[in-house]
Write a structure and sequence with these properties.
Keywords: Membrane, Transmembrane, Transmembrane helix. The protein is mostly helical. The chain has one domain. Helices cover 79% and strands 0% of the residues. The longest helix has 29 residues. The radius of gyration is 17 Å and the shape is elongated. The N and C termini lie close together (12 Å). The mean pLDDT is 81.
């Protein structure tokens, strides 16, 4: 029974770690200030979020897989795996991030989103680790 409850803690924290898209997208929208609800679309366009979503397709799935991998690396005690995940993500997107446009914010949004994703997964990995150890 004890093992089942510990496994349940790990699974529930893992689900929360993976489901961080809404929070990360909310934080990216707030980079330029906190707009009113009717100004969200205009702010997203001004920040370059709409263009970034079009030019970097699959970002949501990449984020989900990134958070799942980071969560697994932290809980399994394999911190070098985090460097591998971030390296693969950066190298995989490098060609798409290179731009000649001086006003393009793709690289900045990519880095901020990556750090937020890393922190979110790390937070839930810490909660899961603490929950299992405190049991």
């Amino acid at each position: 029974m004890d093992l089942i409850l510990k496994g349940l803690i790990v699974v529930v924290c893992g689900v929360f770690a993976v489901l961080g898209n809404g929070l990360i997208r909310w934080a990216l929208r707030r980079i330029g200030g906190a707009p009113a609800q009717d100004e969200v679309r205009e702010t997203r366009a001004n920040l370059g979020l709409i263009e970034a979503e079009k030019e970097l397709p699959g970002g949501r799935w990449v984020g989900v897989l990134e958070r799942a991998s980071i969560y697994a690396c932290i809980l399994s005690g394999f911190p070098a795996g985090i460097a591998v995940v971030l390296g693969v993500k950066g190298l995989g997107r490098y060609a798409e991030l290179v731009t000649d446009e001086p006003r393009s914010r793709k690289g900045e949004l990519f880095i901020i989103g990556t750090f937020l994703s890393l922190l979110w997964a790390g937070l839930w990995a810490g909660v899961g680790y603490w929950g299992v150890r405190a049991w």
